Amino acid sequence: MSNDAPVAPSAIAIRLTRLLDAALGEEGRFPVDVVELARAVGSELRLGAKIVEVRAAPDLESFEGGLFQLNDDEWALLYNASLTSPGRIRFTQAHELGHFLVHRQLQDEFHCSQAEVAGYEAERKQMEAEADNFASTLLMPVKQFRAAVAGQAIDLDVLSVVSKKFGVSLTSAALRWIRATDESAVLALSRDGFIDWSVSSDKALRNGAYIKTRNRVVPLPDESLAANAEAESCRLGERLPLKTWFEHAHPDAVVREMKLQCDNYGYTLSLLHLSNGDKVWTPRDWPSA
Ligand SMILES: [Zn+2]
Fold first, then answer.
1. Which residue spans of the chain are classified as CATH 1.10.10?
2. pLDDT by 10s per residue, the chain, length 289
3. CA of 14 to the centre of ligand 1 (A)
4. 121 alpha carbon – ligand 1 mean position (Å)
């Protein structure tokens, strides 16, 4: 690999996946040992640069992780010592490893936090998305991820089992599923009754089922399970009219809404599973009477 060639984040993750599959076997090697990989990758891939230090740092303040150039060819990968969830620590480490592999020629230090992303300019946002893409592909390779969910109707229990296998948070596993699935589904994260962000599967996007949250304040729909403070987490889902979430949906269409209330982190995760054929029409699509 040339030091100067731009590297696609998923391409480098797939290359590492092949090396790890060959060295450790395709199954039984999860969760990925990111620390060991980070220490080895510089010399294994002959990058001319290496990560010599991976450690928890008490002084990262609001940042979850960071990557710092120490000298010409040595880097340190830090993660916030206050992180307690092994899944979040692993994802943060993999994210920083992504910066090292993809972006180290662009900057000599990276301070990363999920909360900061909203304020970043476009170029920085893209780098953060690329590092997340790398982490997701490395920790949950598509082949093994598909095998882990194959033959099962998706729900938050299934995704919880999968998240444990790959050693990531349930949110990371759900995002991976949404991006890989052929089914029609929407994932949304909300706090205090408002939707922070939402991601639709390709099929859902094509069917018009998406929630725009960028630069907008989007309250949870009144009748949704997510908005219902009385409703505890509902991992298997409850069937509701699709119109509850998408006002232009066909009156007969139904959605299965799953809910997970994460009291520790103060957010609610919602997974909406639509029928594959159900389109969320815009009013001009409605057949004229
Ligand atoms: Zn980052």
1. 9-139
2. 444 556 789 999 999 999 999 999 999 999 999 999 999 999 999 999 999 999 999 877 789 999 999 999 999 999 999 998 999 999 999 999 999 999 999 999 999 987 555 556 788 889 999 999 999 999 999 999 999 999 999 999 999 999 999 999 999 999 999 999 999 999 999 999 999 999 999 999 999 999 999 888 999 999 999 999 888 888 889 999 999 999 988 888 999 999 999 877 789 999 999 987 777 765 555 554 3
3. 19
4. 13
Residue bearing tokens 């997970």: 260
Residues measured by CB to lie within 5 Å of ligand 1, the ion: 112, 128, 131
Determine whether domain 152-285 maps to CATH 1.10.150.
Answer: no
CA of 52 to the centre of ligand 1 (A): 19
Cα 252 to ligand 1 centre (Å): 43
φ and ψ at 50, to 5 degrees?
-145, 160
| Six token digits for residue 52 | 């010599």
Whole-angstrom Cα distance, residue 215 to residue 195?
12
Q: Which helix (H) or strand (E) holds 166?
A: helix 156-166
CATH 1.10.10 fits 9-139, yes or no: yes
List, by residue range, all CATH 3.30.450 domains of the chain: 152-285
Question: Distance, CA 131 to ligand 1 centroid (Å)?
Answer: 6
Q: Which residue type, as a one-letter code, is found at position 92?
A: T
Would you state the structure tokens that stand for residue 159, as one six-digit string? 């995704």
Distance 141 CA to ligand 1 centre (A): 20
Helices (H), 68-112: 86-103
* CA of 99 relative to ligand 1 center, distance in Å: 7
Task: Give distance in angstroms: CA of 283 to centre of ligand 1.
Answer: 40
